[in-house]
Amino acid sequence: MEAIGKLGEEAAKAGVMVEMGGLLPTAMGARLRLAGGKLTVTDGPFSEAKEVIGGYAVYSVKTKAEAVAWATRFMNLHEQLWPGWEGETELRQLMEFGPPP
Amino acid sequence: MTATDTHRAIDAVWRIEQAKLIAGLARMVRDVGIAEELAQDALVAALEQWPKSGIPDRPGAWLMAAAKHRAIDRFRRAKLIDRKHAELGHELAADGEGVTPDLDAALDDDIGDDLLRLMFTACHPVLAQESRVALTLRLIAGLTTEEIARAFLVPEPTVAQRIVRAKRALAEKRVPFEVPRGPELAERLASVLSVIYLIFNEGYSATVGDDWMRPQLCEEALRLGRILAGLAADEPEVHGLVAIMEIQASRFGARTGPSGEPVLLLDQNRARWDQLLIRRGLTALERAEALGGARGPYALQAAIAACHARARTGVETDWARIVGLYGELAQIVLSPVVELNRAVALAMLFGPASGLELVDALSADPTLKDYHLLPSVRGDLLAKLGRTGEARREFERAASLTRNTRERELLLNRAAACAATAEPAP
Question: Which structural domains are found in chain A, ordered by start?
Answer without folding.
Answer: 2-81 (3.30.70.1060)
